[in-house]
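One example copied in:
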Amino acid sequence: MENTLLQTLNQKVREWSDKGYKGAYKETLNILNHIKRVGYLHKPQIEALETYIYLKEITNNEPLYKTVNHIYKDDPQKLLLSLGLSQQEALTIAFDRQRDEKINEKLREKYNGLDYPNQVYALTMGAGKTILMGVMMIYDFVLSFYHPEDKRFGKNALIFAPDTTIIDSLKEIKTFDYTRVLPKEYQSFILNVKYYYLETPETPLNPIGNYNIIVSNSQKIILKTRHKEDLQAKLFRDMSLLKSKAIENKRLQAIRELNDLIVFVDEAHHSFGTTLEGTLKKTKETINYIHTEGKTPVVAVINLTGTPYVNNKMISDVVYHFGLKQGVEKGILKQIRFFEYGNVRTEGFIEDVIDKFWNEYGENRLEGKLPKIAFYSANIEDLQSELRPLIEKILIQKNISTEKVLEYHTKAEASKEEFRVLDTDDSKKQFILLVGKGTEGWNCRSLVSCALYRKPQSSIFVLQSSTRCLRSIADNSTIASIFLSQDNAKILDKELKNNFSTSIEELKNQEQKDIEHTLTVEKKKKLMVKKLIKEIISRQIKKPNEIKINWNEFNAEKYEAYISQRDIVLTEGQEAKYITKLQKEKVKIASTYTFYEIVELINRYTHLPCLFISEVLKANGQDIVGKVSNNNGVLVFLIEQIIRASFQYDEKTETVEEELELTKRYPFKISVNQSKNSLVVYKQQEDKNNLGFHINPYNFDSLDEKSLFSYLREVLDKDEAIVDIYFTGGVTDQVHNDFFFEYYSPQNKRIAKYFPDFLIETTKGRFLVVEVKANSEKLSYEQNKKTYQGKKDDLFDEVFAKELGFMDFKKLNGAFDYHIIFDAGLQQQQTLLYKSIESCITEKP
């Protein structure tokens, strides 16, 4: 059964987002708009954050059963459907006299009857759950700082991790650059945040004040149950255990003393699953204990997981879901290739896996990193006595260095540091042999393959280990390979159905519709240019008694409301024809205003003091109230008259030097449709050449741009007079790129920003700006250029208007030249551009 609540909530959040986040705090609007401008977060991270904020600020951070009531308050039928009732049960309740009470009872039953918000955010691996958690916390902290009395926002945070390996991966919360999600005015707040990672029982916890983030394995602060002990046990009890328990009790006590605590449960499927019921019960007991016995009630419990299904049924508390299939489809995860082995001996399995891995990936680096394969063994003895000797034997036969092998498990802790740096350019390891390591929390994007032959003791281990190789890397064109024995393939298929509601067959056939790319800086670039700054200064030039309303200028027809009629009718020849009737029908809209309401309305649009406006109206001695009430258009006329008579505007111009940066606020992500992915070019794909790629990759808009770039790199590579080529047209946002010109857009009837396609820099201090356009745009450009008389109304072509914008820039910056190339894919046009570049080189700046 589909999650009706999830669908409805998603729709409501999208509508709220599209309407500009109506009802949210000013700080929230600033943060959300900044996040969208910077573009660092994945789309599912932004959608999950929007859902989190919607539930907090719009539905008032209520327990989930109340939120459901709030969402369906106008649609009781959908409310009943959301409960998952049978048709007969729904009908019985719908016509029951105590309907509301019974619905509330069912809601409390479905959502565990908790009196605090308990929400599950389900994002597949690689979608950024850890960063999302950090952003949620910082958002809460900032809002609680500006609105300290609003108890919907947490002032402290506790993160429960399922085990110590996850704690290590959660250190990303501390190291993340929060300027990517916080506007400048809130960035200093980050200095107030204090972090506590409770990795060992001996790690002390002494939180001070507010804005503490505590990360712990739930076992280290869990509520303990006391048992009676005999005297001998008390006398001979292990003192180190005593000390450990004392510290745990102090931790829980310290946490209870924190104000407005918000609890995050990472990898929350542990808390909803059946394999860890004891831990689940204790974790929930601890949270409830903190909620009831703490200094203040728990603000909310936020669960994050990649697997929101238990036994193929979605957890009822899920409020946002971005699944494994969506991750592949949207290009956040690699596409997958499965290999299933039946009736194959261990040596044959390993040999074929290594053959396929080496032939497919070899030593072809991805973002500078060697591709890797993880072999998961059932136990250390099997690994050391059989798996490693076989792998090394096969590698020697294939003339591959055995130095590429890394073994890591509880008896090989010396390898921990090498394991930690696997996903770096310096790592030489490619064959990773693991026991009980490398599952949840292991983020290694250069891992492209996983192999499981022997059947492990835990079926969930098959799921966790085999899917470790799915995180995307580079342009995400690399397909992941998963090698499984027949038994493990059956287990994986079952676990995929139970935990992701998908199957091996579905994942094999899942195609990418969008591909996500991360743009990074290869070469920082700044330019010094001159800009003309215009400042409009208003001066109040008259006193109230000197301002006269010229009623002779009032044209009633100009301000009267009217209705005009336009029809589409069929002619005798049965063709549709558009007809506008000449006559306009006047609409009488009369509203009664008081004198002071008129003053307030004029103040709203003129920003003049109310006392000043009152004196102006009184000095004119007319029945202002009667005139405005009779014809509301008089109010607009009065505003125009008062502004015109009150102010004089002076224009002040100043030429300043300004530094333009081509590589601001990187890295950030872009999403490209599969059909246009061939236009995304990575530096590693091109011939080695010093020119271009100040950012990597370049995302071209057309084949003409891509072709021209390749041509220019080739012909200009050996020209010592060329410093570099920059493709600047792929990043058209001032947040990341300062290199733009302002121009008047005839299409939009306003001043707009124009980001040119290419910038070519010479050693003589000259620059050539190149704009690439399709041949279909040439005729309109030439017509406008021919007919242009220097007036704004003469403009109709966007390409020509952009050229005029550049010419205004060139008046102050003579070292810049401009060239438009139509049909840039044609060799003739490329040759003409090359000649322009040569003349630019020979000219003096």
Q: What stands out?
A: The radius of gyration is 34 Å. Residues 532-653 form one domain. The chain has four domains: 114-322, 325-512, 532-653, 662-842. The longest strand covers residues 526-540.
